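Here is the promised in-class demo. Please do not try to memorize the tokens; focus on the logic of going from shape to residues.
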């Protein structure tokens, strides 16, 4: 933050303070993202704004979705810049969380863990079909359970869903 300008964590623009909402939980008293980005995020969450068909954008969408869940679970979640190595959020007690998302595939939801040993938890989002982008499940899984894998799958079967049940979080509206 310099010269009355602040950089939005989403669009990366340097904007004057009035482009941000007041957020007393932050050290500078302002939201991390600009008003415009927060409004867009809200519209996306409500499903009225189509996602651009662009991998980077879609990956980042998952990261944005994770934020309210992580705040609810850890009380604090600081979003790292896009492309941060190994994790997307730094939460209370120094927990590092990497966000993964998957659409329904033939066998289930496939999450690419890529042997990531930096993150402490993986926040895994299971979407419906590629077209709908509806969230079916979200799981917060301790890294030690899955980070020996390049990828892991949560199957559609009752048994598989049951197996991961203890890590599942309630879907937020
Ligand atoms: Zn912005």
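The designed amino acids, position by position:
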């Amino acid at each position: 933050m310099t010269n009355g300008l602040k950089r939005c964590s989403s669009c990366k623009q340097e904007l004057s303070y009035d482009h941000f909402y007041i957020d007393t939980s932050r050290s500078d008293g302002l939201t991390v993202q600009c008003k415009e980005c927060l409004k867009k995020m809200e519209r996306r969450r409500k499903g009225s704004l189509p996602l651009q068909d662009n991998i980077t954008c879609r990956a980042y969408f998952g990261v944005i979705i994770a934020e309210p869940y992580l705040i609810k679970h850890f009380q604090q979640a600081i979003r790292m810049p896009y492309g941060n190595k190994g994790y997307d959020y730094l939460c209370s007690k120094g927990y590092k969380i990497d966000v993964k998302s998957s659409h329904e595939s033939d066998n289930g939801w496939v999450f690419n863990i890529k042997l990531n040993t930096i993150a402490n938890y993986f926040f895994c989002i299971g979407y419906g079909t590629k077209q709908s982008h509806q969230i079916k499940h979200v799981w917060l899984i301790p890294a030690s359970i899955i980070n020996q894998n390049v990828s892991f799958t949560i199957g559609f079967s009752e048994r598989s869903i049951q197996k991961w049940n203890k890590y599942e979080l309630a879907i937020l509206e």
